[in-house]
Design goal:
Layout lengths: L10 E2 L3 E5 L5 H8 L2 H7 L8 H11 L5 E8 L4 E12 L4 E8 L9 H15 L5 E7 L3 H10 L2 E12 L2 E11 L8 H9 L1
Amino acid sequence: MLEPAEPILNVVGERVALGPLRRELVPLYARWANDFEVMHQVGSIARPLTLDDEQAWYERIVGNEHLARFTVYVRDGLRPIGVTSLYAIQPAQRTATFGIMIGERACWGHGYGTEATRLVLDYGFNVLGLHNIMLAVRSWNERGIRAYLRAGFKEIGRRREAVRVGERVYDEVLMDCLATEFASPVFGRQLAAEAR
């Protein structure tokens, strides 16, 4: 019997690393997508998904040139804890939209999401050559908003009372980050070393 392969890592930070999505992790991605608290935090509609649904999602996004999606790993043990992506990538405009889901609730509040966000920004700005990366987050996700601010995003506006949950309404917070305002944690050092 073959031993499971070590995951490929594309971007390695201090505590987390990013690698491509993996077909063998589809059941784990499905577990996260079926955790309604996780879905609430990322602002997605919580609905039950089958393994077939998740497999179809995986097949649909593989090879999409307007999407860069990563599995987030804790470096210590290379345990997968979530997924993150740049989507709606527009090379001519040098723009994209950011998303992240830390699916392992035990990993919330440890700074993994903040570091993964910085690594994706670094990839977007220094590998893809993007200039503006934006996101939308629900106003109830205060932990996420703080993480995005620490990673380099700035609030650029709100779509007021645009999200309804039960009888309550919330704002959708719009944030962005510019390449000219971002200090690279990984690729900037590599590019500087190559220039020497």
